[in-house]
Design brief:
heteropentamer, A mainly alpha (538), B alpha/beta (403), C alpha/beta (236), D mainly alpha (387), E alpha/beta (252), A: ABC transporter involved in vitamin B12 uptake, BtuC, E: 252 residues, binds adenosine-5'-triphosphate, binds urea, binds magnesium ion, ATP hydrolysis activity (chain E), nucleotide-binding (chain E), ABC_transptr_urea_ATP-bd_UrtD (chain E), ATP-binding (chain E)
């Protein structure tokens, strides 16, 4: 959001435009110097004065104030625009543009802003930006005006409406105009009716709020139109809310799927009650952190793609730990599944403490890459990018695993070995190798899940613990040993959770889901996709 | 060589290790520095560290061990209220001293415990005042983890807001389980709640681990501080260290200390801390400051009493004032809470807070909230002759003791 | 003189914990011959086979496959060297389909040999009908047929069968008998057969060993064995 | 008949251990209270309270072993019964506070007062009476176990499915008790207890008394459990564990068998919880945490499951280790404990009791009937067509 | 009970029973009547549905259609395994199934007839008569010398014997024996046939076997099942001559 030069250019152009009308003669150097004085709460008034000036240089100053890059020099309280270069700051005089390089932080003091000040600046500057040559800025300005409903903007919008060519911005401007029209008392009914119809097409909560606030004589055309618009919007909203909720459910389901899919191998296929599964996820998440750190040091340009590097790294790291675990401990416990619970519990304690010792006990910061930040608005839906990616990623991991298990000789060997190790060996299958591979695969997949989960939650030594119970619930609910069960189980529990949450609240909702699982198992004592027939009895 | 033992009772493993380990380190540093200054009463201080492992009954067991077996003179420890509640009878029975460094729900004043963290009136109420005055907030979301601290705080805030004329439909209260990680629904509810045209803010008493996914979801759903600010009471520098704060700039926290506070005491404390941990990136936070204050108060009281005997020190502590890290002095009051400044800070993209508001003077901690009907009647004063943690001003009896 | 012994067992002992199940057992399995082991319940027949296929370690003695000592080798190595095993109790992979059960035999085969020979389906047509049924759902006799078929998929040089006729209908027992003869005569396979079903054994075997209490008490060519003689060895 | 039945429990090693427990129930309070602190045989207060707690853990582990070791029901939710017993006792202790609470309310516990509750919820009635409390200590966990077991066993939920739904049960209770609206003090739980049956809790004598009660409770439960497993019913239990459906074909009503032990075991766990709470001074929803229940399983496994003495030894050993490590190696104790678990699994597959048995076997040539049953094969390894 | 109903001496009556698994008809309109005191041999190709039939009788599998009546009025399809066992139907499985973690003696003890309720078994005291009976049974199945060993340590054939012992201990009215002589030597097979004939004097028995010598020794009426229904019925000689039986079962 940093202020581009383009804005300044267009402000020059603006001098001839209506804003200039409201521009006042202001003592610029004095007012700017004033910013460095006094308390934060008095600063708003000074900003207002500067905004009135209409001077293009003011926009830069105010933007930097909002961004927190406006400083004054301690020695003489002179205000500067700053740019951090390495460890030092380059100072620019806001009025003369004169530059001073290599200033140390200790000579400077930041001029603070708070939210309300930033809001004042944003609203004020949006008036300028309405005519910016950068479409993105015009778009943002229109949105800001829609929120601020500042009547001053009305003539500016109308001027711009005549020139605007981009349809999207055009409609935003119309919406902003409607917002202003509806929230001002003295507008003609025709204008109001037009505004209502625009808002009706726009839909959404913002429109609804504006419409609900419309004051009109009962039974008047305006009142009726308003009422109709409100009903129409509400109906649409309720549909979109339901769809949105399904998406939340799917998204939660995909997180559950990721968390449990490795367990579907180590526990579901191999029968190892793997209490260290969560820690494999944790290892994946810490690998992501480590890779990100390394990328930031060695190839800062690739930071946005460090997740892609983290995927194989996490698979290998967690897989390797899994391999060591299998060769060192698990292999002595085949045929004694309950003992695997004890041993892997011990391993999970050790792994947690190891991570705590190496990385420290507190959360680690894993940055969301830009392509996983923010949301996409799709009709009435708001889908956040990280959830979208995770959803498809989970499906992809599931698909690959499914193919591996069902369609490859290795998959067949894995299943044979876990069903009857001795006989598999007598069929010529290298059981130790298959065991090690299978466990490492399950662990590696848990690690890969950790990469994804680091994007939405904590990366801390406790990370594994927060997923382990849910993972077991999913695998068991779906039916142990059935990969489809894990998929459908995860999605079902996710959606069920999200449908209960609005009624019951998050806490009771979760309790209901647990009770649901308990009751469901009564109906299907071997899970959703129970293996049937003689082969499983006893 | 005879030493004075100091117990450090913070979880180094389990769910709370994430917060408490730092406090253990801080205590070790404070003790080491005191020893460099020549110790106390001519003796060296010796820390005794145990790990209660985020397991509440284990807190009680370890407290007993520290006092009974290790014979410590005072204990610095606990974070969650339940861990404090768990050790409380032990300190009472064995008559020892506990310094508790974390903001909490209040409604307690015990002879053997000194509360150096904030009571609700030292954190929550000023924060709401700020939002009303500065941000002109009219609609409130009180979001918390479902446990006693948020429940009590929100109860107090609800009463306070209503007293200030906020309508019931302009308050939304929401509780989530510990470690809640899927915030999609709640954040979108907040968004909808805030779209009603009135300026809306979120007052968050969300605990520890649940914060990272909460803020990530806030950022991704595009809730900006300028539109719907979130003010948190449990998010400090340590918590922010696990987050990309760039999208969160402008969201708020209310504490009695921020690392960014500019004072000489703070500057040297931070320097010492970074040197002690050998980590230039290590941050400081409010509970650390509370330990800093509590420890210095204890040192001063022991010097004043000339002994580490618990009774003498407990009496000596009241009235002791030591420098805090924000540039003033904090004093121990007769209700075993301390005076503190209240600061509101905005999150910056470097993971620090920028102080945007500070109370004019120090706010004394109120053990018994004035906004809860049954609590409003109570006062605490551990000085003779009252010597009571919950004196009922109406019946003129000491609640807990007057039978 | 060419080596005619496919497998040599040289004075092995086998223990289950403290209990000894085999004492000083020696035996030779010749190429292209059917060697039959007879004995009452619990005398150690299955234990002997387990020792040979590597499912239970021996405490003493040696096992030679051709000239290689395989005494300590794991089962999969032995399978890889050509020992096919049909265990007592069938040991079907219950959750795998019939087809997958058969395909587990591919593990030791080079890629281009990974197919199921038509002969197997000719011998056990039922398997072809039930390719996609789960192994565990088959009837007892069907499972027995699957177990034999599965062992044949690996194209073994030595086929080790533990009471293969158990639970199988008479007509198929006859087929199995024919098949075993065919494997010996046409493929030169060495066959080691444990049986209780005396007539079956007498009809097929070239060499017969009789076990009692963990020892081989009598050995000799099949034609030398008198029916009543054997009966007397086998009575309780 | 009952006494004859119990007497059957008092055989062999069990008799010795029961006698030892009865002895320490008497001796420890004596050595703690009547000897001067510097006397060589004096037992310090700290040790009394510590071991009093361990005894309740041991009782919990014993209860679990009855269902897991003997009947093959791996309950990952036994902590729930323990916690419920604890809450029942906690409610009694809360009501004993009376008007001595901080707000001086004669009826309402403090946490209700400050959250503005106006009256006592119905489910808090009766807990001012000790006899009622005593009844509830058994009735509440017993009833939950009965209802839960009734459905689960009738539906033939077995194996991991059963384990996981017991985990779901305790997890749901955890979340429910965390809720302040439930009226059990939320996360802070029930605290600030003053006295039990008129005896001040912060008094050495009371603590010694509670220690004694715990030792006796363990002693009696041990005898009862031993009587159960030595009866023909005990053999049915093992038969059920091994081949449930085979037992059905013999005419045993397996679901009743399971329901009976599950309920008895839950009651024992409830008793353990009830004795635990006054000794540690707090009960909070954390006791419902699934990890707690898993730990109980681990104590049992370490001691040796399917033996009655094993779980007692296991509970005490692991907790002693934990108490010691958390003070001696506060930053590294998880390594030690984790390694211990792994080592026990690898080197003592049948736990401490199994190791002791094999040592004994080495000395005595004659092999006795094994008392440590082998753990069953996993479901995935079973094949074949019979039952 | 059978004395009361001399006109309907049918102990077990399967009426037009069918069951299918995933569309495969394992039992197809099967009807069969076993009289009180009768021993019946059942033969038939692998997969004919013999074991499935036993599963249906003992409550393990619910038929899709048809009735199974025991003692005239008890519809077995409405009862579970426990009730059916308590009503007096005992079973030996095709694959020997014993309690491997318990001793041979305990296995017999568990099977011993008597009250099965929780409280009865809690307070059960072994009587002299019971003890004698257990010893006698151990003798019968020739496992006395291994009585105190774990059943897991028995060989395959020994487990077969143990299971027969358990079946006898149960003292049922109807015994279902699935391939009792699989894995036994010829001599043992003869012994078993004798034993079964002895048992059949006092109760009904259904035997499934593939060993024709054994069936001949039993010398009873034979039912041939094929593809889930009755193919032929009569004496062994009669059915052996049946061309379909030769074709699908005996072979040439
Ligand atoms: N896993 C085992 N553990 C302990 N003892 C065993 C085990 N398997 C077999 N035995 C014992 O070893 C002896 C030999 O058993 P094995 O199975 O080799 O007999 P077998 O000759 O094959 O008998 P069958 O004809 O009944 O199959 C028997 O006494 C048996 O009880
Ligand atoms: N659960 C099931 N799912 C699919 N098919 C099944 C199932 N149970 C049995 N079958 C099939 O039903 C048929 C009858 O099986 P059953 O075990 O009753 O045969 P059987 O007559 O006992 O044979 P055998 O003599 O080989 O023991 C077989 O073809 C079998 O594959
Ligand atoms: N006291 C608290 N923050 O739990
Ligand atoms: Mg055998
Ligand atoms: Mg069959």
């Amino acid at each position: 959001m940093s202020l581009p030069r383009a804005l300044i250019a267009c402000l020059f152009f603006l001098f001839a435009a209506p804003v200039a009308v409201s521009a006042q003669e202001v003592d610029l150097p004095g007012s700017i110097a004033q910013l460095a004085q006094g308390k934060l709460k008095d600063r708003a008034a000074k900003v207002e004065i500067l905004l009135k000036s209409g001077d293009p240089r003011v926009a830069t100053v105010l933007n930097q104030l909002a961004e927190g890059t406006l400083y004054y020099r301690k020695s003489d309280k002179k205000v500067f625009l700053t740019e951090k270069t390495g460890k030092t700051y380059a100072l620019t005089d806001p009025l003369t543009g004169e530059e001073i390089k290599d200033q140390s932080k200790s000579n400077l003091k930041k001029i603070k802003a708070n939210n309300s000040l930033r809001r004042t600046i944003r609203d004020g500057l949006s008036l300028f930006a309405l005519s910016s040559s950068d479409p993105d800025e015009r778009m943002q300005a229109a949105e800001t005006v829609f929120k601020s409903k500042d009547p001053i903007a009305l003539p500016l919008i109308e001027a711009r409406l005549l020139k605007e060519e981009i349809a999207e911005i055009l409609s935003l401007l119309n919406q902003a105009k409607s917002a202003i029209v509806l929230s001002s008392a003295d507008m003609p009914d025709t204008a109001k009716l037009e505004a209502i119809s625009i808002l009706r097409t726009m839909g959404g909560r913002g429109a609804l709020t504006l419409l609900s606030a419309v004051e009109a004589a009962p039974k008047s055309a305006v009142a009726q139109a308003t009422q109709l618009a409100i009903t129409s919007i509400e109906r649409r909203l309720s549909i979109w809310d339901a769809v949105q909720n399904i998406w939340y459910g799917l998204s939660l389901g995909s997180v559950l799927l990721l968390a449990s899919i490795g367990l579907a191998i180590t526990f579901g296929v191999m029968g190892v009650i793997n209490m260290a599964h969560g820690e494999m996820v944790m290892i994946g998440a810490y690998t992501t952190f480590a890779v990100q750190q390394a990328v930031q040091i060695f190839a800062p340009g690739l930071t946005d793609y460090s997740l892609l590097l983290a995927l194989p790294a996490a698979f290998l790291a967690a897989g390797l730990v899994g391999l060591i675990l299998e060769r060192g401990i698990i292999r002595f416990l085949y045929g004694r599944p309950l003992e695997t619970l004890l041993a892997t519990w011990g391993v999970s304690l050790v792994l947690q403490q190891t991570v705590r010792t190496i990385f420290g006990p507190s959360n680690k910061e894993v940055v969301n890459p830009s392509w996983m930040s923010g949301a996409v608005e799709l009709a009435g839906l708001s889908l956040t990018w990280n959830r979208i990616w995770i959803f498809f990623f989970a499906l992809a991991v599931f698909g690959l695993l499914f193919l591996l298990l069902k369609r490859t000789p290795m998959g067949l060997q894995m299943r044979a070995v876990t069903q009857n190790r001795k006989m598999a060996s007598s069929m010529g299958i290298r059981t130790p190798w298959v065991d090690a591979f299978t466990f490492a695969l399950g662990s590696g997949i848990a690690g890969v899940a950790g990469v994804a989960l680091s994007q939405i939650g904590n990366v801390s030594p406790n990370l594994g613990q927060s997923y382990i119970i849910d993972s077991f619930m999913v695998v068991v609910f779906g039916g142990v040993g059935n990969l489809w069960g894990t998929l459908i189980g995860a999605i079902t529990l996710g959606v069920a959770n999200k449908f209960l949450e609005p009624f019951a609240g998050a806490v009771l909702g979760k309790i209901f889901v647990l009770v649901f699982i308990i009751l469901f198992i009564q109906k299907r004592p071997r899970g959703l996709f129970a293996l049937k027939g003689r082969s499983v009895e006893q | 060589e005879e030493t004075i033992k100091v117990g450090v009772l913070h979880s180094l493993s389990g769910t709370m290790a994430i917060s408490e380990t730092t406090l253990k380190d801080a205590m070790l540093m404070l003790i080491e520095e005191q020893n460099k200054k020549g110790g106390l009463l001519g003796k060296k201080l010796e820390p005794v560290v145990v790990d209660p492992a985020s397991d509440w009954p284990l807190f009680a067991e370890k407290a007993r061990e520290l006092i009974d077996v290790n014979k410590v003179s005072a204990v610095f420890g606990a974070w969650t209220s339940v861990s404090r509640k768990s050790v409380l009878p032990v300190f009472e029975e064995l008559n020892s001293i506990l310094f508790y460094p974390v903001q909490y729900e209040g409604e307690e004043s015990q002879r053997n415990v000194f509360y150096t963290g904030a009571a609700p009136n030292q954190q929550a109420i000023p924060a709401v005042d700020y939002l009303m005055a500065e941000e002109e907030v009219e609609r409130w979301v009180l979001a918390g983890t479902d446990y006693v601290y948020p429940r009590t705080t929100n109860k107090i805030l609800e009463a306070y807001l209503k007293a200030k004329g906020v309508a019931a439909e302009d308050i939304m209260i929401n509780y989530t389980p510990f470690g809640h990680s899927d915030w999609q629904t709640i954040v979108s509810d907040v968004k909808a709640f805030g779209a009603a045209g009135k300026k809306t803010a979120v007052v968050s008493t969300i605990n520890g681990d649940a914060n990272v996914p909460f803020y990530k979801e806030l950022a991704n759903q595009g809730i900006k501080a300028e539109d719907i600010p979130v003010v948190a009471f449990s998010v400090g520098e340590e918590e922010l260290a696990g987050l990309d704060t760039a999208p969160l700039v402008g969201h708020l926290a209310a504490w009695n200390y921020f690392q960014s506070v500019e004072s000489d005491a703070n500057a040297s404390f931070i320097e010492a801390w970074k040197a002690y941990t050998k980590d230039p990136a290590r941050v400081t936070n409010d509970p650390m400051e509370a330990h800093y204050i509590g420890f210095n108060m204890w040192v001063k009281a022991v010097e004043k009493a000339g002994t580490t005997d618990a009774d003498a020190v407990i009496d000596a502590l009241i009235g002791v004032a030591v420098p805090n890290l924000t540039g003033g002095y904090s004093a121990m009051m007769p209700n075993h809470h301390i005076t503190k400044p209240v600061l509101i800070g905005e999150i910056q993209d470097d993971g620090q807070f920028d102080v945007v508001y500070e109370t004019a003077g120090l706010v004394p901690g109120d053990a018994w909230s004035d906004f809860l009907p049954d609590s409003a009647k109570l006062i605490s004063d551990w000085r003779a002759p009252l010597s009571c943690g919950n004196f009922n001003t109406e019946t003129k009896t000491c609640g807990g003791k007057g039978e | 003189m060419p080596e005619t012994a496919a497998l040599k067992v040289q004075s092995i002992d086998l223990h289950y914990g403290a209990a000894q199940a085999l004492r000083n057992v020696s035996l030779v399995v010749e190429k292209a011959k059917i060697t039959c082991v007879l004995g009452r319940n619990g005398v150690g027949k299955s234990s002997l086979l387990r020792a040979i296929v590597g499912q239970h370690p021996v405490s003493n003695g040696e096992i030679l496959l051709g000239r290689d000592a395989i005494t300590k080798a794991p089962s999969y190595t032995r399978a890889g060297k050509g020992i096919g095993y049909v265990p007592q109790g069938r040991e079907i992979f219950a959750q795998l389909t019939v087809k997958e059960n058969l395909e587990t035999g591919y593990a030791r085969l080079p890629r281009k040999q990974r197919f199921i020979e038509e002969e197997i389906f000719e011998l056990f047509p039922i398997l072809k009908d039930m390719l996609s049924r789960r192994g565990g759902d088959l009837s007892g006799g069907q499972q027995q047929q699957l177990a034999i078929g599965r062992a044949l998929v690996t194209r073994p040089d030595i086929l080790v069968l533990d009471e293969p006729t158990e639970g199988i209908q008479p007509s198929i027992i006859k087929d199995i008998g024919r098949a075993i003869t065919y494997l010996r005569d046409e493929k030169g396979m060495a066959i080691l057969l444990v049986e209780q079903y005396l007539d079956f054994c007498r009809e097929l075997a070239d060499v017969v060993h009789i076990m009692d209490r963990g020892e081989i008490t009598h050995s000799g060519p099949a034609e030398d064995l008198d029916r009543d003689d054997v009966r007397s060895y086998l009575t309780v | 008949m009952i006494s004859g039945f119990l007497f059957r429990g008092l055989q062999g090693r069990i008799a010795w251990v029961a006698a030892a427990l009865a002895l320490i129930a008497v001796l420890v309070p004596f050595l703690n209270l009547s000897l001067a602190p510097d006397h060589a045989l004096h037992i310090p207060d700290y040790a009394v309270s510590l071991f009093g707690k361990y005894l309740t853990y041991a009782l919990l582990a014993l209860a679990l072993d009855l269902v897991w070791g003997y009947c093959g029901i791996l309950s990952l939710g036994h902590g729930a019964f323990f916690a419920l017993g604890g809450y029942v006792m906690g409610m009694y202790l809360m009501r004993q506070i009376g008007s001595r609470g901080v707000y001086g309310d004669p009826i309402l516990p403090d946490f209700m007062v400050f959250l503005n509750w106006k009256e006592l919820p119905w489910y808090w009635f009766g807990f001012d009476q000790f006899w009622f409390t005593l009844l509830m200590i058994f009735a509440v966990p017993g009833l939950l176990a009965f209802v839960f077991g009734w459905f689960a066993f009738r539906s033939r939920v077995t194996g991991v499915y059963l384990s996981i739904i017991t985990q779901a049960m305790t997890y749901a209770l955890l979340l429910a008790f965390f809720r302040n609206d439930m009226g059990f003090g939320g996360n802070n739980g029930l605290t600030d207890f003053k006295d039990i049956l008129g005896f001040t809790l912060q008094n050495g004598g009371t603590r010694a008394g509670l220690f004694s009660a715990s030792a006796f409770a363990l002693c009696l439960s041990l005898i009862l459990s031993s009587a159960i497993v030595r009866s023909r019913f005990g053999k049915v239990l093992i038969a059920t564990r091994e081949a449930e459906s085979r037992a059905r074909f013999l005419g045993y009503r397996v679901e009743h068998v399971k329901l009976f032990v599950f309920t008895v075991s839950a009651m024992m766990a409830g008793l353990a919880g009830a004795l635990y709470v006054p000794q540690v001074g707090i009960i909070n929803p954390g006791e419902f945490a699934p990890a707690n229940s898993i730990e109980v399983v681990i104590w049992t496994a370490i001691g040796g499951r399917g033996t009655l003495i094993g779980p007692i030894l296991g509970a005490i050993t692991v907790n002693l280790g934990k108490s010691w490590f958390t003070a001696a190696l506060p930053e590294y104790w998880l390594f030690a404990l984790g390694a211990l678990f792994v080592a026990v699994t690898l080197f003592l597959p049948k736990g401490i009791m199994g190791a002791m048995a094999s040592v004994r076997q080495k000395f005595s040539a004659k092999k006795s009937a094994p008392s440590d049953p082998v753990i069953g094969t996993p479901a995935t390894e079973q094949s074949g067509d019979a039952s | 009970m059978t004395e009361d109903l001399p006109l309907t001496p049918v102990l077990l009556y399967l009426d037009d029973v069918s069951v299918s698994f995933d569309g495969f008809k394992a039992i197809n309109g099967l009807s069969l009547a076993i009289e009180a005191g009768e021993m019946r041999a059942i033969i038939g190709p692998n997969g004919a549905g013999k074991t499935t039939m036993m599963d249906i009788i003992t409550g393990k599998t619910r038929p899709d259609s048809g009735d199974v009546l025991f003692e005239g009025d008890m519809d077995l399809t409405q009862h579970d395994e426990t009730e059916i066992a308590q009503a007096g139907i005992g079973r030996k499985f095709q694959k020997p199934t014993v309690f491997e973690d318990q001793t041979v003696r305990e296995n017999i003890e568990l099977a011993l007839a008597g009250e099965r309720s929780v409280f009865a078994s809690l307070f059960y005291q072994e009587s002299e008569a019971d003890k004698a009976r257990i010893n006698a049974l151990l003798d019968t199945v020739r496992l006395t010398h291994r009585a105190s060993e774990l059943a897991a340590d028995l060989s395959h054939g020994q487990k077969q014997w143990l299971e027969i012992g358990m079946l006898l201990a149960q003292d049922p009215k109807l015994l279902l024996v699935d391939e009792p002589v699989a894995g036994m030597t010829d001599a043992e097979t003869i012994e078993t046939a004798k034993l079964l004939r002895e048992i059949a004097k006092t109760r009904s028995v259904i035997v499934v076997e593939h060993d024709m010598g054994f069936i001949r020794d039993l010398d009873v009426k034979v039912t041939v099942l094929a593809e889930g229904s009755v193919l032929a019925e009569g004496s062994l000689d009669h059915v052996s001559a049946h061309p379909d039986v030769i074709e699908s079962y005996l072979g040439r």
